[in-house]
Amino acid sequence: MKNLYFKKTKLLISLFFLTISFVLVTAQVYGVDTVATGPRSIVDNLKTAGDAAQYDTSKNQVTDYADLVGQVIGAFFAILGIIFLGFIIYGGWMWMSARGEEQRVTEAKAIMRNAVIGVIILVGAYAITFFVLTALEGFSKSL
């Protein structure tokens, strides 16, 4: 039991440091001189990266509160999709490494089933919200 705890702890610490390293290295990757210009915000770094990749970043300005909420919800769903993928991969890895142990196979199936149920709930919530807001928008335009 202790061995499993240490493995999970080591995995979480590794993922934490990997995430932090991605966040801290973005300025150096995009060639931003943080010493001369001072620390910049994440939005500025993303705009610099978009300009370097020759994307048209002029039309990505948030002009409306609804657009901002939509972008936040989109980012939230993207993060949840990555988490879902992580759970599915973890459950599959657990299942493949179970070596016939029925308890681990059952655990792996439960992890994968719960991940799929979670995504179904999220997609359902998004669909209901989209339907209601679209209906309300159409109703308010008709007034």
Largest sheet: none
Order of helices and strands: HHHHH
Strand tally is 0
Q: Which regions contain 5 or more consecutive residues with pLDDT less than 50?
A: none
Strand content: under 5%
Arithmetic mean pLDDT? 76
- Structural category is mainly alpha
Q: Rg, please?
A: 22 Å
Q: What number of domains?
A: 2
Helix content: over 70%
Q: Helix count?
A: 5
| Amino- and carboxy-terminal Cα gap | 64 Å
Shape: flat
Give me some keywords for this one.
143 residues, mainly alpha
Task: Report on the architecture of this protein.
The structure is a single chain. With 143 residues, this protein is mostly helical. It folds into two domains: 61 residues; 82 residues. The chain contains five helices and no strands. The longest helix is centred in the last third of the chain and has 41 residues. It is flat, with a radius of gyration of 22 Å. The model has no long low-confidence stretch (mean pLDDT 76).
Chart the SSEs and their pairings:
Elements: H1 2-29, H2 34-37, H3 42-52, H4 65-96, H5 102-142
Helix pairs in contact: 4-5
Task: Give a summary of the structure in a few sentences.
The protein is mainly α and about 140 residues long. It is about 80% helix and about 0% strand.
